[in-house]
Design brief:
The protein is of the alpha/beta class and about 500 residues long. About 20% of the residues lie in helices and about 35% in strands.
């Protein structure tokens, strides 16, 4: 099922997508083997919006989903904003010019309703998730799983004991349809459509993502997880996630991301909105292992009310370019916000990551700890915003940015923008850059380690304190992957 042929609307970027260097297939310095996700299967899609972005594309997506009229209106208004907004330049790189929005496929799916058991998932999709180990993870330690394949969730399930607590966990398409009274109240309120060009694009063509609502006082004992898989070439994935933790509730949400490596550009542009009401706690964990033909351009932000806490734990490994700055608006007194991030940039990669902390109430606290590793000619960039207005009192911020350079040609940059007004608030900032020296590697080799083992040991030590912040299953996997071969990483 495809939309009629129409003339597409022009956008502000039209340069052709370019192939990517073969040297950037893996990230050996932390042992993250991107080949683990570097496979794809031929899939017969029942719904295909075709190539290119136009009003017809948006109408097709909304029609296939059988959406309410207000959602279509929301999408069309977002498309107009996207087309009118220039490509970002102040926090971006020239790499963005390589995105050709008219060569992207904006919607592909086999069907609209996710399956509730793995046996029901179509074989060509099920074998993808089995190869990635998602069903096994669900059985071992998860309270619920959503597995998205291209534009829609192929599988979505929550454990009965958690559902009986009143917890809602489903994909956003179902959330809009089945719980509009909750969804609509918060949808687009944390991140407005016009926040930036890519949030506007997401608002126009969004599909998939997670919707979670945790009732007052409910503490979800095990993590909920979503897994986002891109399978098709020249594809754009635009999930929309909304998590609402009602008063006094707690939830941990984890997401994983992979895609096969193609010679053409793939676009991932998500929007994630978190709402932690009075005394609630949300922990949002991301382990991103995109192939490095992926432009990963996402907007993530949470609002923490009185005595609430929002914590982002972020691991950015793959992609050609990542631009991601998880933020927290500290709206209520004694609200707390934290961003813990690890970024690895290899040859042909730029990890442009950071955090945003906006203090909007007295006695609020924010903490940012960012560590980056640059390998070969990879580039890592920290960009952060901390804002504490003059009229507030008792606000505190701590920002730490540490970078590790593996080679002489690797690069790291730090751009902190910290604004603290008045004399009743406090902040502290620390940044360091270090290099793994050949002398250090030589010293460890003299004690029986290979070059790769020595490099693994050095990198593990650098990120160890942050790796402990990840759940045990993720932390063990990260450390295991770090032990992969890294010969030749020292220049």
């Amino acid at each position: 099922m495809k939309p009629p042929e129409t003339d597409t609307l022009s956008t502000s970027a039209s340069a052709s997508a370019t192939p990517f260097p073969d040297a950037a297939v893996e990230n050996p310095a932390v042992g993250i083997d991107q080949s683990a996700g570097n496979f794809s299967y031929n899939v017969d899609y029942a719904f295909d919006a075709g190539t290119g972005l136009s009003e017809d594309t948006v109408r097709y997506i909304s029609s296939v989903k059988k959406e309410a009229p207000w959602i279509l209106e929301f999408r069309l208004n977002a498309l107009k904003k996207f087309l009118s907004m220039p490509m970002p330049t102040h926090w971006a790189t020239k790499d963005l010019e390589n995105i050709d929005f008219q060569k992207i496929r904006y919607y592909l799916s086999q069907g609209q309703k996710p399956k509730r058991t793995w046996d029901e998932v179509p074989d060509d999709i099920k074998k993808t998730f089995e190869r990635l180990g998602i069903p096994e993870q669900e059985r071992k330690f998860l309270a619920g799983v959503e597995a998205q394949f291209d534009s829609e969730a192929a599988y979505s399930n929550i454990k009965e004991i958690v559902a009986k607590q009143g917890v809602i966990f489903m994909n956003s398409t179902e959330g809009l349809r089945e719980h509009p009274e909750i969804f609509k109240k918060f949808f687009g309120k944390v991140i407005p459509t016009g926040d930036n060009k890519f949030s506007a694009l997401n608002s126009a063509v969004f599909s998939g993502g997670s919707f979670i609502y945790v009732p007052p006082g409910v503490k979800v004992a095990q993590p909920l997880q979503a897994y986002f898989r891109i399978n098709a070439e020249n594809f754009g994935q635009f999930e929309r996630t909304l998590i609402i933790a009602d008063e006094g509730s707690e939830v941990v949400y984890m997401e994983g991301c992979t895609a096969p490596k193609f010679s053409t550009s793939t676009l991932h542009s998500a929007v994630v909105e978190l709402v932690a009401l009075k005394g609630a706690k949300i922990q949002y964990i991301t382990v991103q292992n995109w192939a490095n033909n992926v432009f990963n351009l996402v907007t993530k932000r949470g609002v923490a009310h009185e005595d609430a806490e929002i914590k982002w734990i972020d691991c950015n490994i793959g992609s050609r370019l990542t631009m991601k700055y998880p933020g927290v608006v500290l709206k209520g007194e004694r609200a707390r916000g934290e961003v813990i991030s690890i970024a690895l940039a290899n040859d042909g990669q730029h990890q442009d990551t950071g955090a945003k902390m906006i203090h909007a109430a007295n006695n609020t606290t924010s903490n940012i700890v960012a560590k980056s590793i640059s390998v070969g000619q990879g580039r890592s960039t920290y960009r952060g915003v901390v804002h504490i207005p003059k009229h507030l009192k008792g606000c505190k911020n701590n920002t730490e940015c540490d970078a590790l350079l593996i080679n002489t040609n690797s690069r790291t940059d730090t751009y902190p923008a910290i604004t603290v007004r008045g004399d009743r608030n406090s902040t502290q900032h620390e940044a360091s850059v270090s290099k793994v020296s050949e002398d250090m590697i030589f010293y460890m080799q003299q004690r029986g380690l290979t070059e790769g083992q020595a490099m693994s040991l050095a990198v593990n030590g650098f990120i160890n304190d942050l790796a402990r912040q990840f759940p045990m299953e993720y932390s063990v996997e990260l450390k295991r992957l770090i032990d992969l071969e890294m010969e030749g990483s020292v220049g």
